[in-house]
Amino acid sequence: MDHQQVIGEDKVSGADGATGLTVAVGGMGAIGLAVARALDEGRIEGLRLAAVSARDTAKAGRTMAGFRNPVPVTTLGDLAEHADVVVECVPAAAFADIAGPAVDRGRIFLPISVGALLRHMDLVDRARKSGARIIVPTGALIGLDAVRAAAEGSIREVRLVTRKPPRGLVGAPYLVEHGIEVEGLTEAKRVFEGSARDGAAGFPANVNVAAALSLAGIGPDATRLEIWADPAMTRNQHTITVDADSARFTMTIENVPSEENPRTGKITALSVIAALRRLTAPLVAGT
Questions:
Q1: Which residues are catalytic?
Q2: Contact between 229 and 157 (Cβ < 8 Å)
Q3: Which end is more exposed in the chain, N or C (fewer Cβ atoms within 10 Å of the end residue's Cβ)?
Q4: In CATH, what class is 21-139+267-278?
Q5: How far apart are CA 34 and CA 261, in angstroms?
Q6: Alpha carbons within 13 A on the beta-carbon side of 273
Q7: Phi (first) and psi of residue 268, to 5 degrees
Q8: Looking at residue 246, what DSSP letter applies?
Q9: CB-based contacts of 3-6 (< 8 A; 24+ apart in sequence)
């Protein structure tokens, strides 16, 4: 079964035997909280929230008190015991804590830290053995359905150019390692050019989009990435250019920052909600 297909036209039974699928959310930051609230409010038909996890369990517990239907606050590793679907919204350093158990338990796993997934591609083989499905949401990017379609033929080149306000890049490991200063810039500065794999490693909190693009197309080593610190930008901008035997296209998206976390675009959480909706929807548009 294709990793983006609908599970079925009829409602399915969850891990606890109830109608629908249960969902656990790891991480209660801007993305995780938005997804958890959508589930709690019943805005995703056929799915319901079963558990959450967060670094600050006390704060997560207080957040749960304000939900319509509070759920257990558990550890990342235990999330897979509570739900059919596990959504990962944690810092890249904690990725393996949630990914391994979810995949080994045969769950549907939706990772947001796609750059971290590139460093744990053994999860794909583990998913084959356990029956798990790893579904990468489109996130803050655009047009992954077109890239996936082009990849069924022959793609000559995929390039992503990311432009961000300098403050959104401060502290990135690549910048620190190479002594690159971005604060106080008066004009745009290219701070990285290379493969999507190297970019995801050097900017783990900034370019999950590059990792997602590479998985949809020609892979992390062949996908080219440029990152610019641009003081003229007020939003994160991503431009994809694809040259394939079936089509040539260029797409640009500018993401409105989240109020909770300016480094995260509002559309990222909405992308996760849309991906969850596809799991039980009787009609799905797009590849």
A1: 238
A2: no
A3: N
A4: alpha beta
A5: 12
A6: 20
A7: -65, -50
A8: S
A9: 3/133, 3/134, 3/135, 3/136, 4/135, 4/278, 4/284, 4/287, 5/284, 6/278, 6/279, 6/280, 6/281, 6/282, 6/284
Structural domain boundaries in the chain: 21-139+267-278, 144-261
Cβ atoms of 52 and 36 within 8 Å: the answer is yes
Does domain 144-261 correspond to CATH entry 3.30.930.10?
no
Query: CA-to-CA distance for 32 and 51, rounded, in angstroms?
Result: 12
pLDDT in tens, the chain (287 residues): 333 333 333 334 455 545 589 999 999 999 999 999 999 999 999 999 999 999 888 999 999 999 999 999 999 999 999 999 999 999 999 999 999 999 999 999 999 999 999 999 999 999 999 999 999 999 999 999 999 999 999 999 999 999 999 998 999 999 999 999 999 999 999 999 999 999 999 999 888 999 999 999 999 999 999 999 999 999 999 999 999 999 999 999 999 877 777 677 889 999 999 999 999 999 999 87
Amino acid at 66: G
Pairwise CA distance, residues 189 & 98, whole Å: 36
**Is this structure's pTM higher than 0.85?**
yes
Residue type, 216: A
